[in-house]
Amino acid sequence: MRLSNATLGDVPASIRVPGYDRSTLTPGIVHIGLGNFHRAHQSWYLHRLMDQGLCHDWAIVGAGVRPNDAAQREKLLAQDCLTTLIELDPTGSSAEIVGSMIDYLPVEDGNGALIRQMADPAIRIVALTVTEGGYYVDPATGGFDADHADIKADAADPTRPRTAFGAMVAALKQRRDAGTRPFTAQSCDNLQGNGAILRQTVVSLARLSDPILADWIDGNCTFPNSMVDCIVPATGPKELALARALGIDDAVPVTHENFRQWVIEDDFCAGRPDWNKAGAVFSDRVHDYETMKIRMLNAGHQVIANPGEILSVETISACMEHPLIGAFFRKIERDEIAPHVKPVPDMTPEAYVDLIDRRFSNPAIVDTTRRVAFDGSSRHSGFILPIIRDALAAGTSIEGLALVEALWARMCEGTREDGSAIAANDPFWDDLVVAAKAARDRPRTWLEQKRFYGDLASDPRFADAFDRWLTAVWADGAEAALAAFLGDGTRPA
């Protein structure tokens, strides 16, 4: 059965379908970045509100600014923007059809359609999932990267922007000039202070071409911080087959774990859906939730993905089953990460380690090591290095975290220990490979990449530990280094 509005009545009874009339929905949100995570997370929360008879004027209009977004658009429009969500759990699976998205804008040079849609007063929220590395942030300083070619192009011609942020600036200019209230700009990416980072990017970009507009945006738009969480693998042949086995021909189904969390700062200048009625949490402690999740779950992913790639372990659950990688994860989390994380309501850092352990170990979720290791330059800069800095300041152990960085450097050399090649997996891959090869003979070459490490290369505690561990990884292999760390926790054998 080909998925569409016309065939919803033919969906097997075991699959939940929208209980609302999709033809009555009107748009209130533009969401840029219609990947799997958004469709399993933010889209689902709104869908469940709509099932309660709420928020029918908040439907999502999808958008993208990259050329490959056009293919995703074609697939989704062909099935009326419906998505099959398949929940995978060791105890069994379930599925439902999500219908909160009603359109997908054309992907075009200059982003005219996107700008027009965001300028429409009916749009009250513009949300984004564009990955951690998509916000034009200098990883060494955390400041705005005004030297990026895309940013320079948008500043030179703000009427035909290349970036999502340039399109937001152009739309906000139209709204200001028309006397229309601004929209809320909402990041849904895994970034500490994601709303503040989005504000920095949008306002800084506007300031390059129109300082008065930048001040208006800064003073009138809101940029709520939020924490998002759900493990959502990429879609491939296996996921397509799962949907077909359920009786549904869906070109872009999404699999996900039996867990979701969304904690949001309640700061919306133009109204918002009552996401809390679908299980989200509005809180003034978003930063604490973010810190726990980013430092423990997202950093934990990097702890296991890099040795997994080196040792040819293909999935995250298999990494957790590996006697050394799984033990490495647990020791790092408990001894070197948890001490720098505050508890949040109903969850201590220690209990969160156990929760992540169970989630990562779920064999029904086929989350590839390669996917998790992608864009390490952003993920190590955003997830691991802040912990190292805090640990150095507090005088606590950084030995395991130094080994984590050494394993990333070893992975970026571009080969696994079985001799197979690791395909390019980072926006800075070519530079990383050059540095990793040089670091084999002189480890500190890796730390001298100031765009990632800043002044950490000059800290003797961290630099000396990194030097020892990378030397050991190259001399004796990743497993021997992991075993040495797990043995006494301080030095290579």
Write the layout of secondary structure elements.
Blueprint: E1 27-32, H1 36-40, H2 42-51, E2 59-63, H3 69-78, E3 83-89, E4 92-98, E5 101-104, H4 112-119, E6 125-128, H5 149-156, H6 164-178, E7 184-187, H7 194-209, H8 211-220, E8 226-229, H9 237-245, E9 254-256, E10 261-264, E11 281-282, H10 286-310, H11 316-321, H12 323-337, H13 349-360, H14 369-373, H15 376-394, H16 399-411, H17 429-439, H18 444-447, H19 450-453, H20 460-476, H21 478-488
Parallel strand pairs: 1-2, 1-6, 2-5, 3-9, 6-7, 10-11
Antiparallel strand pairs: 3-4, 8-10
Describe the structure.
With 493 residues, this protein is α/β, with parallel strands linked by helices. It has two domains: 280 residues, NAD(P)-binding Rossmann-like Domain (Rossmann fold); 202 residues, N-(1-d-carboxylethyl)-l-norvaline Dehydrogenase, domain 2 (Orthogonal Bundle). Helices cover 47% and strands 10% of the residues. It contains 21 helices and eleven strands. A five-stranded parallel beta sheet has the order 5-2-1-6-7, sandwiched between helices. Strands 4-3-9 form a three-stranded mixed beta sheet, with helices on both faces. The protein has a three-stranded mixed beta sheet with strand order 8-10-11, with helices on one face. Helix 16 packs antiparallel against helix 21 and helix 20 crosses helix 21. The longest helix is centred in the middle third of the chain and has 25 residues. The radius of gyration is 23 Å and the shape is globular. It starts with 26 loop residues before the first strand and ends in a 5-residue tail after the last helix. The model has no long low-confidence stretch (mean pLDDT 96).
